[in-house]
Amino acid sequence: MTEIHLSDKQKAFIEEQVNSGAYKSAEDVIADSLSRLGSENEELRAMIAEADAQLARDEFVTYANADAHADAIIERGMRLLDRKS
């Protein structure tokens, strides 16, 4: 079996999860954590693949500087808020 070394902080977190009733055992905490990590990695890979595909299709926007990008984000947010009200 693989030996795993955890920091005191990590051990305390696991113990807190079990003591709170969120998990039945330390093994359940670790299993759920690994499952979530795997899911997150899959999601990131899919997002990167989609971004690569968009780039290949020339579906991207360039900005002159960071301020212009921030302004575009704010403008998009304001439009989304207007649609909801």
Automatic annotation (TrEMBL):
InterPro entries: ParD, ParD_sf. Gene3D superfamilies: Antitoxin ParD1-like. This is Antitoxin ParD1/3/4.
